[in-house]
């Protein structure tokens, strides 16, 4: 074993990043910007396409948010960064492979699952997590073959976060507005045929406790052909909620905007978004196997010992007919093979980004960033300081790190391993072939891109491009 210091030209730090979403890219960016650190970074990503939730989560009509991918492209273009797409951790490569070939590993795997409401009838046909509806309209290969029945008039959306706002807006929007975006073609076609006229959002707490932000709420009022309906009595706040607005600018502006909407009422527009507050679904009612209605219970707010306001059922019930229910009550992490996972928090257990096994056994050289680290919160930019702080821990740990064996430092080892397993990995240059294909198809239709949604088709385009 060499005695050279790790992170020097004689012994560059080898880093594997599992997951090429925003958190992973910000971690790579922080590493390549370290003064006096020589490193070599390899990304492994399950899909051939990079960018994680920027491609598969950000709503199609939020094009300007997606411009952040230019920053990620710059990171990927660094000479010491490589991209291995179409490689699934836990199926194509394993924890033990990565431990052998990399001094440090960063898990940037996000939160791949969704939270449940825990009510009867939740699994009936027509009841879905909003996360998969988002994946479907964004052309995520896992959800492209799903069909959502939109041949009825009313959809219920449970939750008051920005994901709920996105799904409500996409369902209510004029399809011709969406036709100018990179929405998946299959979703556009289904939305063009949609008979849905009313989207009812159900918030378990009041307007002052909504988790969505001002721009998303403002967008509701700007949708052509859509009325935003709020019963003015639901805008009457209890004294604690009213007082809480004094030092919460976002909530204050939200309440102001919603008061304006509540005063507007119906103009007879063809579609409507109805915002309801202080209500919780308590059971989904089926007709046969399909969702037909939802029983909701009226709530009141009770102050908990920590000062927060919690929703408590009042025993007053109501039934709302609907043809589909989308629960948008938060994402949740999923375990990945060989890596610790906390079932209670749905994250990889860590302290300041250092992965922990059990209570206090730190796993040397293993780190976590993004939603897998802190849970599903914050906007894309939140991941930057989060990743920077994990990278600071990684740098601090280098002097104590043993590092991998010298015979495993050959840069070609990982490519040989993947080839020996018949994995047709996608490089960044390969992704750029697909990117060019999608944007050219988009330009022909006056859209930013037309997404290819099947992995097989993506690989066909990439292989043809490689040969050319
Ligand atoms: P979120 O912001 O955490 O909102 C979850 C919502 O679900 C809250 O209103 C919560 O209410 C409600 N909820 C939780 N459990 C519930 C239950 N059992 N019954 C009824 N309601 C329940 O989560 P998200 O919307 O999934 O978004 C995740 C993150 O991505 C957020 O930070 C969000 O801002 C971000 N995001 C941003 C954008 C954007 O910038 N445009 C777009 C999409 C997502 P309580 O408050 O009462 O718990």
Write the layout of secondary structure elements.
Layout: E1 13-18, H1 22-32, E2 39-45, H2 53-56, H3 69-76, E3 81-85, H4 95-101, E4 104-107, E5 113-114, E6 127-129, H5 130-137, E7 154-158, H6 162-172, H7 175-178, H8 185-192, E8 198-202, H9 214-222, E9 226-229, H10 239-244, H11 249-264, E10 271-276, E11 279-287, E12 290-303, E13 309-321, E14 324-327, E15 331-332, E16 350-351, E17 354-357, E18 361-368, H12 371-374, H13 383-397, H14 413-420, H15 428-443, H16 455-467
Parallel strand pairs: 1-2, 1-4, 2-3, 4-18, 6-14, 7-8, 7-14, 8-10, 9-10
Antiparallel strand pairs: 5-15, 11-12, 12-13, 16-17, 17-18
Helix pairs in contact: 1-13, 5-6, 6-9, 9-11, 15-16
Bound molecules: NADP nicotinamide-adenine-dinucleotide phosphate (NAP).
Number of helical stretches of at least 4 residues:
16
- Give the structural class: alpha/beta
- Tertiary shape: globular
Measured between the Cα atoms of the first and last residue, the distance is 44 Å
Name the beta content range: 15-25%
Q: What's the average pLDDT?
A: 97
Q: Strand order, main sheet: write it out.
A: 3-2-1-4-18-17-16
The value of Rg in angstroms is 24 Å
Bound molecules: NADP nicotinamide-adenine-dinucleotide phosphate
- Low-confidence runs of at least 5 consecutive residues: none
- CATH architectural grouping of the largest domain: 3-Layer(bba) Sandwich
Largest sheet, strands/sense/barrel: 7 strands, mixed
Helix content: 25-40%
- CATH superfamily of the largest domain, by name, is FAD/NAD(P)-binding domain
């Amino acid at each position: 074993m060499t005695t050279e210091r790790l992170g020097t030209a004689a012994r560059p730090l080898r880093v594997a990043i599992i997951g090429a979403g925003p958190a992973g890219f910000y971690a790579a960016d922080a590493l390549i910007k370290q003064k006096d650190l020589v490193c070599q970074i390899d990304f492994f990503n399950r899909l051939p396409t990079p960018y994680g939730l920027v491609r598969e989560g950000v709503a199609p009509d939020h094009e300007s948010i997606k411009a952040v991918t230019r920053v990620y492209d710059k990171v990927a273009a660094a000479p010491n960064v490589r991209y291995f797409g179409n490689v699934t951790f836990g199926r194509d490569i394993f924890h033990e492979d990565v431990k052998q070939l990399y001094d440090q590993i960063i898990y940037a795997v996000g939160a791949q699952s969704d939270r449940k409401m825990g009510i009867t009838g939740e699994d009936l046909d027509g009841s879905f997590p909003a996360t998969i509806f988002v994946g479907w309209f964004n052309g995520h290969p896992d959800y492209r073959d799903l069909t959502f029945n939109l041949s009825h008039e009313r959809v219920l959306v449970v939750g008051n976060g920005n994901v709920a706002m996105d799904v409500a807006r996409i369902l209510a929007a004029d399809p011709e507005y969406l036709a100018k975006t990179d929405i998946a073609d299959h979703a556009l076609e289904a939305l063009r045929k949609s008979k849905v006229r009313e989207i009812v959002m159900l918030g378990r707490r009041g307007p002052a406790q909504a988790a969505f932000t001002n721009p998303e709420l403002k967008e509701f009022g700007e949708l052509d052909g859509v009325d935003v309906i709020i019963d003015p009595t639901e805008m009457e706040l209890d004294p604690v909620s009213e007082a809480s607005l004094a030092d919460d600018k976002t909530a204050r502006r939200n309440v102001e905007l919603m008061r304006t909407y509540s005063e507007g009422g119906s103009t007879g527009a063809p579609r409507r978004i109805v915002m309801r507050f202080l209500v919780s679904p308590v059971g989904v009612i089926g007709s046969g196997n399909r969702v037909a209605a939802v029983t909701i219970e009226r709530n009141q707010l009770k102050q908990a010992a920590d000062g927060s306001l919690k929703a408590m059922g009042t025993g007053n019930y109501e039934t709302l007919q609907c043809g589909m229910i989308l629960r948008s009550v938060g994402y949740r992490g999923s375990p990945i093979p060989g890596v610790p996972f906390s079932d209670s928090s749905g994250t990889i257990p860590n302290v300041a980004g250092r992965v922990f096994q059990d209570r206090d056994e730190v796993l040397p050289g293993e780190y976590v960033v993004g939603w897998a680290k802190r849970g599903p919160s914050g906007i894309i930019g939140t991941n930057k300081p989060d990743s920077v702080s994990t990278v600071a821990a990684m740098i601090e740990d280098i002097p104590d790190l043993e590092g991998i064996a010298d015979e495993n430092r050959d840069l070609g080892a990982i490519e040989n391993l993947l080839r020996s397993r018949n994995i047709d990995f996608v490089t960044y240059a390969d992704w750029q072939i697909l990117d060019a294909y999608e944007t050219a198809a988009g330009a022909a239709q006056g859209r930013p891109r037309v997404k290819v949604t099947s992995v097989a088709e993506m690989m066909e385009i990439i292989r043809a491009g490689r040969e050319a």
